[in-house]
Each structure stands twice: as C-alpha cells, then as structure tokens.
Amino acid sequence: xxxxxxxxxxVDGVLLDSLTPHLKICEDKNKEYGLGLKIPxxxxxxxxxxxxxRISPMKYFFTAVGFxxxxxxxxxxxxxxxxxxxxxxxxxxxxxxxxxxxKEDGLQLGIVTSNVKANVVDALGASIxxxxxxxxxxxxDLVYSSKSQAIKQALHRLQLNPDQAIYIGDQPADWExxxxxxxxxxxxxxxxGISEQDKDFPVVHNVSEIYRFVHSRKPEHSGSIV
Length: 226
What we know:
Elements: E1 6-9, E2 16-17, H1 19-33, H2 42-50, H3 58-64, H4 69-86, E3 90-91, H5 95-104, E4 108-112, H6 117-124, E5 136-137, H7 147-158, E6 165-169, H8 172-180, E7 185-188, E8 203-204, H9 207-216
Parallel strand pairs: 1-4, 1-6, 4-5, 6-7, 7-8
Antiparallel strand pairs: 2-3
Helix pairs in contact: 1-4, 3-4, 5-9, 7-8
C-alpha cells in the first residue's frame, strides 16, 4: 500500500518525450525568421536547465535559445497553434500502463503543467482518462499564476493534505514549486533537467520506476482535508 493518496504530474519530460520536438520547432522558426542562431542539442539544453535558465512557459524556451523578445512572442503564438499538428510528441514507454496501475491501486491523479491543454490532451491520448477531470491544470487556466499555486489548488480539489500527495517533475523549477507547496517531490532523470547528480530529492530513471517508488512509501496520514 502506498503512503500517498494522490500524484500530481508535470507532463513534458515526465509523461511525454517532448524535448526533441520542442528543439525542432525552435530550429524551424530560427530558419523561418532568418535569425542564424545555433540551437542547442538536447544535452546542451539540459545543461542550461540545470544551470537555472528559465524555459517555461514556452516564450521563455524561445528566449533561452536566443530568440529576441518580440520574435519569441511571435513564435510562442505559432507554437500554440501548430505544435501538436506538426511536432506532436509521444508518451514515454510505459506511461499508459503505469498510469493505469496507479489508478487501479486507488490513487488520484492530477496534472500541473506549463503547456497548453490541447497539446497535453492530444499527446496523452487514451491515457488522459486516468486523471481527475477537474485536476488538469495547464497554461490555459487563469486560476493560478505559478505551478506552486496550481499544486495547492489540485490538493484542494483532491481533498488531500500536502503530505498525502507527491509532485513528479523533471526540472529544478518543479522541485522549487513542490517545496513552495509543501508537497514531496520526485524527480525524473530522463526528462529536461534533472540528473543522477541531484541529491536534494529522490529520482527515478524511467517511467516504470515511478510505480515502484510510490509503493515503496509506507502509509502515513490517511485523513483528507476537512
């Protein structure tokens, strides 16, 4: 039996293998705008993220790789319109099976992401069914201005105390959001910016390890928020 009653997931780099498509749209817009930038590869980009470069929401991803402010805004608008049609990422291996198993075990599942809802829903496909419908927080939502606030709102909707849930992310900023919301954090090393070198929080190296980690925790508090 898990010590958690709820799991809140980041999406890009945790559930979706999306870094390469994001770098690809940057390369294409770089050529379209005639910027002449050298877009980093995945390994170089991960080093940037680990160094604290802001990459989220997507406008900051474009500025991080060198787009000037005005063109980053333009590229971001185009990103929201065309990304899922032209650059659609796919779930990591084992995502559907892992989410199904967690749901079958009685855990409530939510999402807190800086991506837009259309991208998330389309890319996850049938796996979206495993998430509580009113606990999918995306960039489209106006009820929060930070991931930390969204995590708190998700806890409220799930009627859970902070220590009854865990936030799973792939960037140092995700860890900061979890800390701010007083929620335990699990980092994934296969995403955008966390590695085996991180020692401030537990990490897993593939999707299937998420299930094992969650069930390695002993039950703690079982009451919901009153």
